[in-house]
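seq:
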Amino acid sequence: MQPDKLTIHHLYADMMNMYGDRGNVISLRKRCEWRGMDVDVVDVNIGESIRPTGCDIFLFGGGQDREQALLADDLSGTKGADLRAIADDGGVVLGVCGGYQLMGHYYETAGGEKLPGLGIMDLHTEPAADGEERLIGNVLMRVPDPEGGPEQEVVGFENHGGRTILDGAEPLGRVVAGHGNNGQDGTEGARRNNAYGTYMHGSLLPKNPWLTDRLIQEALRHAGYDGEIEPLDDGLEAAAFSSVAGRVRSRG
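struct:
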């Protein structure tokens, strides 16, 4: 039987909400509600523990170096261990920009400080070299289907100075246009089990409803539901995606 409630745990919502990252929370909530499923949104801040309910999605947003330093300290104890265990068990976790960087082994700031990460993914992030600019702009990437179906395109917006290196992690997708993880190797984001990391900010899920539905479906499966979620009429969303993706692709 499909669970009647999903809980979105918005990690550090008061500190890590750059470039509209709460838009990802809104998209998940609305697409659940349109299917008749109740949603609880729980903000989890510094000093607060994680309390899974059985049907959960955990979201990290983006932030600046100062915020990430505070978070790295907070994640060094029980909270970080709990998140690793959740990811290891197939729980759904989405990290965006600064949150994504903290899912790796470490993030080195522009000032040379190495902030320890969660180690959920086999990757690390380095600062830009002297003379290198921030990686800013729209991104289009192709994402493989984990169940062997056709690739999907994902469009979003990035703004980051750090260069993320995949030490063994599987990339979330391959860049068609934009910079991606580091502007060099053509990768964008990373994925392990049902944990996802990306540099695309809060327009990610609103612009890519199929990815929103994948996260919801994976959360339900993790809760023991083996059915398929009800499809929605995404005609307007598909038209908006095609328009944006076409413009980004043409600019290469």
